[in-house]
Amino acid sequence: MTKKILIIDDEEDVRTYLNSLLTNSGYHTKVADDGEDGFRKLTEFFPDLIILDIIMPNQSGVGFYRKLKKSEVHKDIPVIILSAVTQYKDFFAHDHQSVPRPQEFLEKPFSPQELLNKIATYIK
Amino acid sequence: MSPNQLDVSKEDPTRNDYPQLFQRVPCYISVQNHELRIVQTNQLFQQDFGNRVGELCHEVYKGKSSPCPECPVVKTFADGQVHSSEERVITREGQEAFVIVYTSPLYNDQGQIVAVMEMSTNITNIKRLQTDLSLMGQTVATMAHSIKNILTGLDGGIYVVNSGLQQGDQAETLKGWEIVQRNVARISNLVKDILYCAKKREHVLSIIEPNQVVCEVFELFRGTAALEHIKLVLDLEPKLGPILFNAEDLHTILSNLVQNAIEACKFDVNRREHRIIIRSLFKGPLVVFEVEDNGPGLPEEWENYFFTGMLSTKGRYGTGLGLLVTRKIVNELGGQITFSSLTPGEGSVFRVTFPLKSTSPTQPSPDTEANAAPIS
User: Fold this and answer.
1) Is B160–A57 a contact, with Cβ atoms under 8 angstroms apart?
2) Which residues does chain B have within 8 Å of residue A109's beta carbon, measured at their own beta carbons?
3) Strands (E), A1-124
4) CB distance from B266 to chain A under 8 Å?
5) Rounded to a whole number, what is the distance in Å from the CA of A78 to chain B's nearest CA?
6) What is the pLDDT at residue B13?
7) How confident is the model at residue B133 (pLDDT cuts 50, 70, 90)?
8) Chain A: residue nearest B265 by CA?
9) Considering chain A, what percentage of its residues have pLDDT values greater than 90?
10) Chain A environment of B152 (Cβ under 8 Å)
11) Chain A touched by B175 (CB under 8 Å)
12) Contact, A107 vs A80, CB < 8 A?
């Protein structure tokens, strides 16, 4: 069965890029442009993995991630953080809300092959 | 001997010349009583703040109706010790200045504290230098962040173009090409901003109608604001006639501030109806332009750091250097830019203030001419 990936990023160009890359690699995708939109799509789509940006309007990636980890239904979905802001690695390590760290961090600009390899680690 | 002459031939030349030392010391000195009223001032104080004896110090230094929190004068009255603090004050010409303040008790014959001397050294230039140095580092970080986002966009565009070509999908190829074009434009904007920050520019002045420039900026952004459901409002001062200025600079300054306000409103989730007011004002010797928004506002403590670009609320949009460029132009034109948050969560006002040039057709209003700012 085709695996499903939810892409959450506020930049349209990045969404288009990831959507094209992942579709060409055989995944079924859905895109969301902020954390709020991401949560709406999450409940409809129930993805196998989430690619998450950090700095977004309305609800940031941090807000989305905390909410996700508190949701009994969705908390086990693996998350790959894809952001240009590298210090969020440390932020999640010391997050006062004590949520588990995301599975992976990738820094923009990213290597498409590295992203595909990481995805393959979590959804086979 | 006149009180302005010092007799250096004496064994202790300072002994009988304290009044002159008090007057000539190159920092602001004011003496305050228990009510915090100024009872004595020195020459430099009078030059920059006027003759304000009898008035409350917080009114004179800051235009505030209540005493400052953590007031060093109050502390010295309480414990008789020397206290110090860094403060931001406003001179009588409306110019912002940073000062480092030391307070010291003054006793009567019975050993009671009857007054406190406040000695303030103007450190505005040092502050500016300090800010510029930290700006340099932060600007590099901002640029690196912008470049990373642009590179991701370019990678994406190239990938989508290749994918479209391989699949013979013209629509996909075109979509990729648009992404490439968009990100090339972002690089171009970034480079323009960097160059603007790096170079000292000549600002050729001519007689311009400032309200006309404000209207042009209003028209330029009306469509963009409407798309974001933001109401753009124009509030012009009709008395503001032609002035000696650079129209292109004014256009850049206001455009950056309006763009910044739009981004602030876009990222505000707590309010449904947003509005931005672009305002021109004419306050005696000063021409003032304001851009006010009802976005999320910013904490007051961010003010000193706001023009570092890194603290731009707009995150990845634009280059993040817009406010830095604005500050540079304003400073080069001899003006001042300040930012104030309205009540928390109620938006902010960016204000740029310029002294009128001597040859400006618009003249300072007669009631304030006596206190006119120096013509730069």
Assistant:
1) no
2) 148, 151-152, 154-155
3) 4-8, 28-32, 49-52, 79-83, 104-107
4) yes
5) 23
6) 57
7) confident
8) A57
9) 61
10) 11, 13-14, 17, 84, 108-110
11) yes
12) no
The sheet with strand B286-293 has its strands ordered as B230-235, B274-283, B286-293, B348-355, B336-341
Of A13, A18, A58, nearest to B182 by CB-CB distance is: A13
pLDDT tens-digit map of B233-253:
999 999 898 999 999 899 989
Distance from CA of B179 to the nearest CA of A (A): 6
What is the pLDDT at residue B369?
34
What would the pLDDT profile of B327-363 be if each residue is shown by its tens digit? 888 988 889 888 777 665 678 888 999 988 655 566 5
In the structure, what pLDDT confidence band is assigned to residue B301 with cuts at 50, 70 and 90? very low
Query: What topology does CATH give the domain A4-122?
Result: Rossmann fold (3.40.50)
Using CB atoms and an 8 Å cut-off, which of residues 52-71 of chain A contact chain B? Answer: 55, 57-59
Is B156's CB within 8 Å of A17's CB? yes
Establish whether this prediction's ipTM goes over 0.90.
no
pLDDT class for A87, splitting at 50, 70, 90? Answer: low
**pLDDT for residue B264:** 79
In our burial notation (b when 16+ CB lie closer than 10 A, e otherwise), range A22-49 reads: beeeebebbbbbbbbbbbebbeebebbb
Please report, for residues A116, A118, B232, the alpha-carbon distance to residue A121 in angstroms, rounded to integers and kept in the order given.
9, 5, 50
- Structural domains in chain B, CATH included, are 26-122 (3.30.450.20), 127-198 (1.10.287), 206-371 (3.30.565.10)
Cα–Cα dist A7/B187, whole Å: 25
Nearest Cβ partner for B149 among A20, A57, A84: A84
The answer to whether B51 touches B45, Cβ cutoff 8 Å, is no
